[in-house]
Q: What sequence folds into this?
């Protein structure tokens, strides 16, 4: 019996070995065949109006031939890779990327219409998914196979006196960042104010409306306090805004310098630190966000500091808690982060179990630190706010996904709605079905949210939720379509239907319009008592040109690296996958806060860079840590 089993193993081994030899022997031919299949699949078209599946134009183009050669070359080198673990991880990533990319196709083609359901369209979708999966899997294999070589290039022994982890270097770099924001400040003086900062924070701080947590109270007190200080010192509301913007510029400069300081402390190669410096310094988004009065910037900066603290815990373990100021400081920053934006709570909740699991020897210290943090947060948001009669935000902010489903079904499947279905819809959306359908915007839920009755939802949550699942089974295509069209920009780098970036420099005027201008009696009273003047101190009009071209995605590749949320999500997935491949499990923990931020932003009313900005800022740090640790650890050894 044993001899038969051994014989079967030998035959199986011989078969696999023979298959590998044939694969390498006919590598060139296989590469051409697969390359041709991928190219034909990529150019395959579907025309909804005529239900046509095929090719509508001839591809006798030299550039298309070069594209074909490039794909064949990619596959040729990928086939040479024999690492089974790498192929498995890459295939999983390839599947994820294929789904994400095809969701982008759906958005681009069917944003303002219904998604087809014909058999030809289903076949077209399957072909696209398979072709995308093949292409992305091979790309990831080649990338992962060459990453060690790339990492070895970052082994510079040279250091620069003003670019290390010393105090002088820290303040010099911070000063460089601060100076880089001055053109934005002088041109958009005194700074841009978003709608919530006016109608919530400033209205509250001046006593025009009661205090609430619709706009986080901690931000209202911070922003309003500095605004009052500037107004008291300089005598104008404009000066108060300017003082807050200067404060935010200073915070941004110090946090960005902290990133580079910490990278130097972790001995991340100076070449990568220089790349990070340039990335943070030359990205115009950083300048615009630095002079923008909105809670998001302070939240993202505090989240970056929390991530740095988590990386320190992961790597230093017991040493981190021996320095008493470190856990205290991290705890305070974490409390502030959560109070400034509730997303921070979900980021921490997602990360905490894995942090405890990955650092089992110090689990008690971790539980005490973050347990105390959560107790403080819940105490402030619970008994303290209740005692002060602070109102909370309405639930509509986190119900975007089901609200969009209701609206889309009303627009594209109203003829199939029963009287009971219509009754439930109008219970939670007390407007006509025609208005609900006409107000539906696929890529953001603000218009739908305006028609939503939060009070009715609070009274009866169960019916709303049950109806969502009922609709999901009854209208699966519309349910998936509403989800993809509302959230896909978070994970589809090929999304190109509408621009993400705002027209920076006009936001204050836009906010006035959103609030209602002088027709709004509260705003009229506010602006009369506290007039606000926007005035250009220095003519840096080139900033508008940058906004119109680079930020609004008019320049290929460069614009993607500046504004494309989907691209940075893909980089995050690649970081996860590479850590899994090389068994660098502890570094997965540092990625979780950004994953949590990304996940909660999907449930938000719309996709905007301001909701996910920390993901852009954290990527250079993540990549630097992974490169550094991958050089120090032997492949295949699990991190304890």
A:
């Amino acid at each position: 019996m044993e001899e038969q089993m051994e014989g079967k193993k030998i035959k199986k081994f011989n078969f696999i070995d023979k298959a590998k030899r044939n694969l390498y022997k006919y590598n060139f031919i296989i590469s051409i065949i697969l390359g041709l299949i991928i190219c034909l699949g990529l150019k395959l078209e579907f025309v909804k109006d005529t239900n046509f599946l095929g090719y509508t134009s001839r591809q006798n183009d030299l550039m298309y031939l070069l594209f074909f050669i490039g794909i064949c070359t990619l596959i040729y080198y990928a086939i040479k890779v024999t690492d089974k673990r790498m192929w498995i991880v890459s295939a999983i990533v390839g599947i994820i990327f294929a789904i994400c990319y095809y969701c982008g196709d759906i958005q681009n083609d069917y944003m303002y219409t219904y998604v087809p359901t014909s058999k030809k369209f289903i076949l077209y979708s399957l072909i696209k998914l398979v072709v995308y999966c093949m292409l992305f899997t091979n790309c990831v294999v080649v990338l992962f196979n060459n990453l060690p070589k790339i990492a070895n290039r970052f082994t510079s022994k040279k250091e620069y006196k003003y670019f290390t982890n010393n105090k002088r270097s820290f303040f010099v770099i911070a000063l460089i960042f601060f100076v880089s924001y001055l053109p934005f400040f002088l041109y958009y003086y005194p700074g841009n104010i978003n709608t919530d900062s006016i109608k919530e924070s400033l209205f509250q701080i001046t006593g025009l409306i009661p205090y609430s947590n619709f706009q986080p109270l901690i931000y209202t007190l911070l922003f309003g306090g500095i605004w009052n200080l500037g107004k008291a010192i300089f005598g104008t509301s404009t000066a108060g805004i300017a003082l807050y913007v200067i404060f935010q510029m200073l915070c941004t400069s110090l946090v960005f310098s902290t990133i580079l300081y910490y990278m130097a402390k972790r001995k991340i190669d100076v070449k990568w630190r220089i790349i990070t410096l340039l990335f943070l310094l030359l990205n115009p988004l950083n300048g615009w966000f630095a002079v923008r009065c909105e809670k998001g910037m302070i939240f993202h900066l505090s989240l970056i500091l929390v991530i740095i603290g988590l990386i320190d815990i992961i790597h230093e373990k017991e040493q981190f808690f021996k320095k008493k100021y470190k856990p205290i400081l991290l705890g305070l920053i974490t409390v502030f982060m959560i109070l400034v934006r509730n997303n921070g709570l979900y980021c921490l909740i997602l990360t905490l179990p894995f942090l405890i699991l990955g650092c089992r020897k110090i689990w008690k210290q971790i539980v005490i630190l973050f347990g105390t943090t959560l107790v403080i947060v819940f105490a402030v948001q619970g008994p303290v706010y209740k005692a002060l009669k602070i109102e909370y935000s309405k639930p509509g902010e986190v119900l975007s996904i089901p609200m969009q489903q209701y609206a889309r079904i009303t627009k594209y499947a109203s003829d199939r709605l029963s009287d009971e279905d219509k009754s439930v819809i109008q219970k939670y959306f007390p407007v006509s079905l025609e208005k609900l359908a006409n107000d539906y915007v696929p890529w953001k839920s603000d218009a739908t949210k305006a028609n939503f009755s939060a009070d009715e939802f609070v009274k009866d949550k169960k019916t709303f939720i049950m109806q969502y699942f009922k609709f999901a089974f009854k209208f699966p295509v519309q349910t998936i379509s509403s989800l993809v069209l509302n959230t896909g920009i978070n994970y589809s780098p090929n999304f190109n239907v509408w621009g993400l970036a705002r027209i920076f420099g006009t936001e204050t005027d836009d906010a006035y319009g959103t609030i209602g201008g002088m027709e709004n009696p509260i705003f009229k009273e506010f602006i009369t008592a506290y007039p606000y003047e926007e005035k250009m101190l220095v003519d840096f009009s080139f900033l508008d040109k940058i906004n119109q071209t680079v930020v609004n995605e008019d320049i290929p590749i460069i614009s993607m690296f500046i504004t494309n949320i989907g691209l940075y999500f893909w980089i995050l997935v690649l970081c996860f996958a590479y850590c899994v491949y090389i068994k660098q499990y502890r570094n997965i923990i540092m990625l979780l806060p950004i994953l949590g931020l990304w996940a909660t932003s999907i449930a938000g009313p719309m996709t905007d860079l301001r909701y996910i900005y920390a993901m852009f800022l954290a990527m250079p740090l993540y990549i630097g840590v992974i490169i550094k640790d991958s050089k120090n650890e032997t492949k295949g050894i699990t991190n304890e």
